[in-house]
Amino acid sequence: MSVVVSPFREPLVRGGKTYHQITEDLCAATERAPSLAWVLAFIAAGSALAFGLFCIVWTIWVGIGSWNLNRTIGWGWDITNFVWWIGIGHAGTLISAILLLFRQKWRTGVNRAAEAMTIFAVICAALFPGIHVGRIWVVYFFFPYPNTRGPLWPNFNSPLLWDLFAISTYFSVSLLFWYTGLVPDFATVRDRAKGFRKKLYNFLSFGWTGSAKHWQRWEALSLVLAGISTPLVLSVHTIVSFDFATSVIPGWHTTIFPPYFVAGAIFSGFAMVQTLMLMTRKVLKLEDYITVNHIESMNKVILLTGTIVGVAYLTELFIAWYSGYVYEQFAFFNRALGPYWWSYFGMMACNVISPQLFWIKKFRRSIYWTFLMSIFVNIGMWFERFVIIATTLARDYLPSSWSLYSPTWVEIGIFIGTLGIFFTCYLIFVRLAPVVAIAEVKHILKAAGDQYVDKNNAYAREAALHPPVQHETAGHH
Amino acid sequence: MSSHKEVIYGLYNDEEDLLKAVKQANAMHLPIMDVFSPFPVHGLDPALHLAESRLHAGGFVYGLLGLLTGFLGMTWIFTKDWPIIFGGKPYWSVPAFIPITFEMTVLFAAWGMTITFYIVCGLGPGITNKVLDERITDDKFCIAFNKASLGDTGKVNEFFRSTGAAEVNTKVL
Questions:
Q1: pLDDT of residue A101
Q2: Is A151 near chain B, with CB under 8 Å?
Q3: 3-state class of A159 per DSSP?
């Protein structure tokens, strides 16, 4: 094929892989018995999930009074966790949809796992609005269906209902996109399997044969799904930000919220992708498919979005001062210097200051620093939502109703439970499905495999001379 | 499929050999039944004279349907079925309908297109299609002919030999 390849482009598939070797490498994790590390991780994640379920049942049984919310602070860890999880989900769609439209070949190494992460993160997110309503047994009242209560309809002018539509659509469209991408790879696993696994993958692969016409339609479908998922992903976090921005609470009622939330969502999502991919590539030995080049590309996105988020924080502060509006000014003064100053500080340190390290190529290409930074960003973005939600509500218009808030064990338990759900689902996923999209990697092999684009082995030699920064050298900084 | 047909197929090791072979088959007026590959091979569609997929157009229609369902649904509910004033705004608050209208557009387009894709391809949960060779989803590229429509198999054997097929087999589907 006459693909024009820049001689300066770094290979995305290393090790001189053949098509068959790609199949072997990427199917291997689904075919061998789980490792001890997997079993231990699964037990840990399953236990967290079980404890979370217990706390959810407790919440429903005892009531929302089992949380420490009060009349002033009506949203606490529940909505903080909701926004955090939904934000994490956004990176999957960004990688699979926006990078497909931009023809970024490096997406093929990470898109499958990132999309899976999106789906699991949205499941965790959707849990919180569900249980925070208190009377979960009438939660179906949200949905507009002809009913015997009038019929009484939900309020279509409410951002909370927009959220319901946005998140349901986002979840189901992500699922379709992910699954349709998986079908050809399930067929690959099916054609290698025996016995029960043959039956299982025969069902999962929907009868895929690899016919030319099917591939043509498959590509058409992927492209259009990418095209509509792109505005979808932007709309979802925009609508999440409307939950706040359409209110009249100082600190929430700002027009900067939609772009600021979307940038923050992509930022936190990429951090979670890094956390997961660095572990996955190590445990499943996928270093030839998820290369340092992939990691560096994602770090560039983290640097960009982290800086956008930083600009948004500073713009908020400036506009609060410039507005001359005393309530707005107080809201921001209180965020930075009030009783929750530590969460504002954590947010600034983790989200704005620390990612600036990625201006330096050495750090962008270091596994160790990337992993550390991904954890920082995950924490920082959680703080950001806590700052926006709890600290803003804690000091409202009336000093007589000012309050403070700290979570109960139930609220903490539900958060731990969602981490359990997320990692349990992810661990099942890595056993059941190829973590890297097999067909897509084969498709880019001749344009990005090292035996084609790096014939003189320049990158391999450079990598040998200047290995990426590892634990040993990290101490110098 | 109840109709049994005998298929003669050749396997190639590389997509570039496959593309050359398809062009050669066209030149020799051999009626190709189907081509199978482990990943989409670009340049194959024009060589096989496959018309462009109309899924895109389908997606537009489904999207439009979703847009109208969302917008007209909310309009009917808030102006005819149960008008309620929220925050002193008009019953027919068009800007407030935009988010849900948009989400419904995406929802209908995505589900409509995906379901259509599986139906027209004859794929879906519980469906098993016979595979010619299990290595097609791994690293083999396959050109298949329906033996009934060939007449003389000597010509097709010569075709496979001259285009460098790694293997030639026959299978009843």
A1: 85
A2: yes
A3: helix
Q: Which residues of A touch B108 (CB under 8 A)?
A: none
Q: In this complex, is the C-beta atom of B85 within 8 Å of any C-beta atom belonging to chain A?
A: no
Cβ neighbours of residue A381 closer than 8 Å, sequence gap 6 or more: A84, A87, A264, A267, A268, A271, A350, A351
Q: Which domain holds residue A68?
A: 19-142+153-452
Using CA coordinates, name the residue in chain B closest to A172. Answer: B107
Position A462 pLDDT exceeds 80: no
pTM of structure: 0.91
pLDDT tens track for B82-130: 898 888 889 999 999 999 999 999 999 999 999 999 999 999 998 898 8
Q: The dihedral of CA A160, A165, A171, A174: what is its sign? A: negative
Cα angle A434, A19, B140 (rounded to 5 degrees) comes to 105
Q: Are residues B156 and B143 in the same domain?
A: yes
| Chain B residues lying within 8 Å of A191, measured CB to CB | 131, 134-138
Strands B6-12 and B167-172: antiparallel
Q: How confident is the model over A352-386, as pLDDT tens digits?
A: 999 999 999 999 999 999 999 999 999 999 999 99
CB A192 to CB B78 under 8 A?
no
Kindly give, in sequence order, each residue whose CB lies less than 8 Å from that of residue A210, ignoring residues fewer than 6 positions away: A184, A187, B36, B37, B38, B136, B137
Residue spans of chain B under pLDDT 70: 1-3
Give the pLDDT confidence score for residue A476 in this predicted structure: 43
- Residue of chain B whose alpha carbon sits nearest to that of A229: B106
CATH number of the domain at A378, please: 1.20.1630.10
One domain, residues B104 and B60: yes
CB-CB neighbors (< 8 A) of B146 in chain A: none
Is there a single domain that holds both residue B59 and residue B117? yes
Q: Assess if residue A339 is contained within a domain.
A: yes
Tally of domains in chain A? 1
Q: Per the domain annotation, does A466 fall within a domain?
A: no
